[in-house]
């Protein structure tokens, strides 16, 4: 803890740093302004890494002079328990920047993966929000309630996701079976090009989830705390099992 220092200005926080991890709110203009200021503070060799969940670092660093040292490093919540970090290479990121970032994260005990194309949402959030889009569409259409949809995920295919990724599972059951299922299923999946109006309405009504007491379902403070505790315990157990 004695190595942690708090600052209310960027310059004293970043001066002399070899690597800077940015974790500002998901606003492109704000991140661009921070990176522009950082470029005037740190050395040309210092790595500038963004922890954006969806914004391409290519866009964040587009107007910088030394774009070759800009890289995406998407940590996953809670970051002290989830080992994965997506390391996203922009169209200008140098091989040396990628290698140094991957090495630093490995030495910090993380599990970095190299994302070779900088696209919105990278890998993890594209997969996660594809699932969320379909789940919200099922709820909005009245196919099932929120608890049932979550139960299907948690106790069905979700139970194996920590040990078997979707492409591994496809190879396991056979690509011929995967093709047959998709021939029937894919035409019926939600393909809306815009954010769900059902979701927009929830937010407009102030139904923001656990922090407001209601989202897709109602939550008491005790229920919300129990979910957070259950998540933490499950992640710790996963880490212990290796």
Describe the structure.
The chain has 242 residues and is of the alpha/beta class. It folds into 3 domains: 10-115, NAD(P)-binding Rossmann-like Domain (Rossmann fold, 3-Layer(aba) Sandwich); 132-195, N-(1-d-carboxylethyl)-l-norvaline Dehydrogenase, domain 2 (Orthogonal Bundle), CATH 1.10.1040.10; 206-242. Helix content is 45%, strand content 10%. Strands 1-2-3-4-5 form a 5-stranded mixed β-sheet, sandwiched between helices.
Strand order of the largest sheet: 1-2-3-4-5
CATH architectural name of the largest domain:
3-Layer(aba) Sandwich
CATH homology superfamily of the largest domain: NAD(P)-binding Rossmann-like Domain
Radius of gyration: 21 Å
Give the strand content.
5-15%
CATH topology of the largest domain: Rossmann fold
Mean pLDDT: 96
**Apparent shape:** globular
Overview in brief:
Residues 1-118 form the 3-hydroxyacyl-CoA dehydrogenase NAD binding domain. It contains ten helices and five strands, in the order αβαβαββαβαααααα.
Which descriptors would you attach to this protein?
242 residues; alpha/beta; Rossmann fold; N-(1-d-carboxylethyl)-l-norvaline Dehydrogenase, domain 2; 3 domains; 10 helices; 5 strands; 45% helix; 10% strand
Please describe the topology of this protein.
Layout: H1 10-14, E1 19-22, H2 28-39, E2 47-50, H3 57-60, E3 70-75, E4 84-88, H4 95-107, E5 111-115, H5 124-140, H6 146-155, H7 166-173, H8 175-185, H9 197-204, H10 221-240
Parallel strand pairs: 1-2, 2-3, 4-5
Antiparallel strand pairs: 3-4
């Amino acid at each position: 803890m004695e190595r942690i220092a708090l600052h209310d200005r960027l310059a004293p926080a970043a001066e002399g740093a070899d690597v800077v991890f940015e974790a500002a709110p998901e606003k492109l203009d704000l991140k661009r302004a921070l990176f522009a200021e950082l470029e005037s503070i740190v050395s040309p060799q210092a790595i500038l890494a963004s922890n954006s969940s969806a914004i391409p670092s290519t866009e964040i660093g587009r107007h910088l002079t030394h774009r070759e040292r800009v890289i995406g490093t998407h940590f996953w919540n809670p970051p002290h328990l989830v080992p994965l970090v997506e390391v996203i290479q922009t169209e200008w990121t140098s091989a040396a920047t990628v290698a140094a970032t991957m090495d630093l994260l490995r030495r910090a005990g993380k599990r970095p993966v190299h994302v070779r194309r900088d696209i919105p949402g990278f890998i993890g959030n594209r997969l996660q929000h594809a699932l969320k889009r379909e789940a919200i569409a099922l709820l909005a259409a009245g196919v099932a309630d929120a608890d049932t949809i979550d139960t299907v995920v948690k106790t069905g295919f979700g139970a194996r996701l920590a040990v078997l990724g979707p492409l591994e599972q496809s190879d396991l059951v056979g690509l011929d079976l995967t093709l047959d299922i998709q021939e029937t299923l894919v035409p019926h999946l939600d393909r809306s090009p815009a954010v769900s109006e059902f979701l927009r309405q929830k937010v407009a009504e102030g139904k923001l989830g656990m922090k407001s007491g209601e989202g897709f379902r109602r939550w008491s403070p005790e229920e919300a705390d129990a979910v957070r505790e259950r998540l933490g315990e499950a992640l710790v157990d996963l880490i212990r099992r290796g």
